[in-house]
Amino acid sequence: xxxxxxxxxxxxxxxxxxxxxxxxxxxxxxxxxxxxxxxxxxxxxxxxxxxxxxxxxxxxxxxxxxxxxxxxxxxxxxxxxxxxxxxxxxxxxxxxxxxxxxxxxxxxxxxxxxxxxxxxxxxxxxxxxxxxxxxxxxxxxxxxxxxxxxxxxxxxxxxxxxxxxxxxxxxxxxxxxxxxxxxxxxxxxxxxxxxxxxxxxxxxxxxxxxxxxxxxxxxxxxx
Length: 223
Hints:
Shape: globular
Strand content: 15-25%
Largest sheet: 5 strands, parallel
Number of helices: 8
Order of helices and strands: EHEHEHEHEHEEEEHEHHEE
Number of strands: 12
């Protein structure tokens, strides 16, 4: 069974999330702050983390940032009462994979959990599927129906990164750091050039499109 860790300082919410997740076939464990979550993840394996932001001792931003700095790639969903765009942006920049604002629809939460877990498995398999389009990491190949296209490495990795998290906004700086590396001498214009090439290559793709978030960055959207 897939195991999910819940970091939430509200005891009633923590119990509700645990109950619903277990009812849907998952194993769930709850902790009350980020420090407890780190300890739990050090001592056991979890397939996904659900974390509140405002918690005592260590908040959700600090928790996710610490996990990512330690090389932990466990999918993270943040559930919070903070609904401002800057709060959402900070959550994604800290390394979270999805974001829900309280009060949440509990059934939607279950659907999102399932989607995150499926996506994580596809990344582990080094293969990503969006509708009828398949991205194969080992061969840098994008297949749509009978058509197959081998991309330059940076273009493929850029598309693969964004397509792994449909709807998630990536800033230019974030994409530069993750695809080109922190010590790259290139500037963020390089990202724009590669995005332009990808748009041209896949302008007729029926399964996804690359959307510009003016002043912020880019995201891949399923069609």
